[in-house]
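Would you be willing to look carefully at the protein I have copied below?

:::
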Amino acid sequence: MLQLKTLFQMKGNEDNLPKRITLLQCAKQKEELLFQETVSELKNVLPKSFDYHYFVTRPTGSIEEYEDTKNCQFRVGRINEEDLAMVINKSQIDNLICFICGPPPMTDHFCSKLRNMGILPSQIKYEKWWCIKG
């Protein structure tokens, strides 16, 4: 999620930003979604170029209660290939860079899915969260 901080640092220098930035984030519950306030603020700063989609696998209450703003809808379930296809513009695939953050099984899974969609390994950057059980 360090990429979000970088985007904020470029505020006022939008000409150097990618034309389109889309965040897909998934957690069990809304409260576990990271940096919600920062993400919402980033949408306000970059309304034309930044979008985000939240996914929850175990919502508490009805999903309608999760709607935070007009900028984002929550979906129930994990991020899947259809969700990736929805946000990846095939005509722009050569200019695409994907950033994946999460536990190793998840990052490996999405790296594989993106490669199967024709995205080169050099276009995929990832940050693995290592968990130590003790």
